[in-house]
């Protein structure tokens, strides 16, 4: 845990002092673009690698009654039999994290082991992922001109409470609370803490760094977002030779560098569950293993050797040994 | 003849096409298109508008006044903070006087102080706000000044 925290702090220092020392071009253009390239190529490579791995067995897990006799009511969602039901199960898995809802806590009750739900984990995970999505989409206003209307609407809805000027956005509060919950869970629960590795803490600290530096830049140590938009539009418009606008604070570069590190770290980390969730064979296969034979589509074509071929090869020797043959040597020549 | 060729080709390709990899590749394609969208969307827009380089929105500065309540850089980044503070001072605490860093005294009043110089809302406030998708709620209560248009 300490290692991850120190790593993130060190990265922050690198960005802060780097841009204070005048490496704006590196931290503003080169590193983010490289990070995006690493992210996209790395992500694709990982996914292609997984797409090549065989699925030798149907290992769909069931959470309900499988389709059976006509008078037994099947649970279509938890034991999907058809393709459509499987798609429904996957959709809910991806949008609602159904499998995180159950069997995530193990307790002993009255001397028996009981698998039950850890609903707060599920709620925090949902809150984190959805607010992250909204925050991510909201940033699109710096990447496009003109800004599409639904982004403005979304932000108006997010800041519905009209607290402060630079309106307080609810997602900003929720995302920090959710990350702190996910982090606190790893630090405070002894059993979770025991199985937590630096690769569990690092993304959490990094995300905390990203969100806190963004929040700091929005509400406290503000930077001139018009200049920021000029910089970003130069990058996405491939006008990298344009001068870097003045007056962008180091806090912005810190934020950008954290995001760049997150992007570069992504393909090599457990964050790949973003793409991997689609490839979970326990979820994306229909639970019809009793009715349909599962054949690994990547199996090599089978080589058969018939008895006739075998006899053709050893006919002479078999005839010498006096073994019974289907074709005698004198008939086989023709 | 041609029909047979096409039929052979389809038979040949069928096991390769109808395969989960097709879906994975399709999903990856969508992923790449979405995550690179700022690049190609801006390229498409530039084809229509002809503007290659995005420029900072031009705002209409007052001609007869040179001094604001604070420096340019501070106002660019923090003007909303100042307005918020002024709102609290005027409406909640009843203080109507603001002394800036140079000792100048200003009357705390959005319409009569700020907007007396920056009277042109569409060209002063809105250009940057629109470009950066900022939607302040000043004008829910305050009257929009219409002046300085001539």
| DSSP E strands of chain B, number | 2
The strands making up the biggest β-sheet of chain B line up spatially as: 1-2
Structural class of chain B: mainly alpha
Beta-strand percentage range of chain A: under 5%
Structural class of chain A: mainly alpha
**CATH first level of the largest domain in chain A: which class?**
Mainly Alpha
**Overall mean pLDDT of chain B:** 81
- The ordered H/E elements of chain B are HHHHEEHH
Overall, the morphology of chain A is elongated
CATH fourth-tier homologous superfamily of the largest domain in chain A: Transmembrane di-heme cytochromes, Chain C
Number of beta-strand segments of chain A: 2
Name the chain pair whose interface involves the most residues.
A-B, 50 and 43 residues
Q: What is the string of SSEs of chain A from the N terminus onward?
A: HHHHEEHHHHHHHHHHH
Report, as a whole number of angstroms, the end-to-end distance of chain B.
78 Å
Write down the oligomeric state: heterodimer
Q: Which runs of chain A of at least 5 residues are low in confidence (pLDDT < 50)?
A: none
Rg of chain A, nearest Å? 29 Å
């Amino acid at each position: 845990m300490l290692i991850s925290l120190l790593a993130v702090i060190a990265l922050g220092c690198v960005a802060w002092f780097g841009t204070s020392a005048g490496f704006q071009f590196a931290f503003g253009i080169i590193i983010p673009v490289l990070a995006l390239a690493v992210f996209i190529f790395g992500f694709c490579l990982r996914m292609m690698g997984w797409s090549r791995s065989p699925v030798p067995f149907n290992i769909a897990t069931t959470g309900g009654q499988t389709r059976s006799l006509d008078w037994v009511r099947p649970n279509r969602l938890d034991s999907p039999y058809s393709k459509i039901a499987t798609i429904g199960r996957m959709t809910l898995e991806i949008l609602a994290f159904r499998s995180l809802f159950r069997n995530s806590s193990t307790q002993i009750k009255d001397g028996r082991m009981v698998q039950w739900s850890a609903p707060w984990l599920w709620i925090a995970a949902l809150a984190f992922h959805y607010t992250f999505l909204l925050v991510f989409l909201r940033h699109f206003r710096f990447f496009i001109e003109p800004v599409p209307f639904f982004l403005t609407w979304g932000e108006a809805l997010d800041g519905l409470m009209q607290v402060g000027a630079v309106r307080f956005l609810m997602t900003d509060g929720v995302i920090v609370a959710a990350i702190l919950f996910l982090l606190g869970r790893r630090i405070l629960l002894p059993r979770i803490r025991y199985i937590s590795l630096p690769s569990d803490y690092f993304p959490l600290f990094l995300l905390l760094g990203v969100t806190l530096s963004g929040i700091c830049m929005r509400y406290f140590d503000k930077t001139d977002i018009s200049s920021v938009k000029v910089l970003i539009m130069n990058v996405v418009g491939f006008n990298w030779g344009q001068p870097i606008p003045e007056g962008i604070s180091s806090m912005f570069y810190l934020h950008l560098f954290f995001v760049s590190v997150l992007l570069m770290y992504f393909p090599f980390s457990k964050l790949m569950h973003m793409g991997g969730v689609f490839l979970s064979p326990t979820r994306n296969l229909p639970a019809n293993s009793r009715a349909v034979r599962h054949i690994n589509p990547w199996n090599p074509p089978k080589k058969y050797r018939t008895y006739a071929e075998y006899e053709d090869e050893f006919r002479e020797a078999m005839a010498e040994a006096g073994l019974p043959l289907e074709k005698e040597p004198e008939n086989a020549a023709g | 003849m041609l029909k047979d060729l096409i039929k052979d080709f389809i038979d040949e390709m069928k096991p390769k096409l109808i395969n989960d990899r097709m879906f994975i590749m399709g999903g990856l394609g969508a992923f790449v298109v979405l995550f690179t969208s700022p690049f190609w969307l801006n390229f498409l827009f530039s084809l229509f508008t002809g503007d290659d380089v995005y420029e900072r929105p031009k705002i209409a500065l007052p001609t007869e006044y040179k001094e604001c309540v604070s420096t340019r850089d501070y106002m660019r980044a923090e003007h909303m903070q100042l307005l918020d503070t002024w709102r609290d001072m005027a409406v909640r605490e009843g203080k109507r006087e603001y002394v800036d860093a140079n000792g100048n005294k200003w009357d705390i009043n959005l319409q009569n102080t700020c907007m007396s110089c920056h009277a042109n809302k569409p060209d002063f406030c809105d250009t940057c706000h629109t470009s950066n998708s900022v939607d302040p709620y000043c004008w829910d209560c305050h009257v929009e000044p219409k002046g300085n248009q001539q």
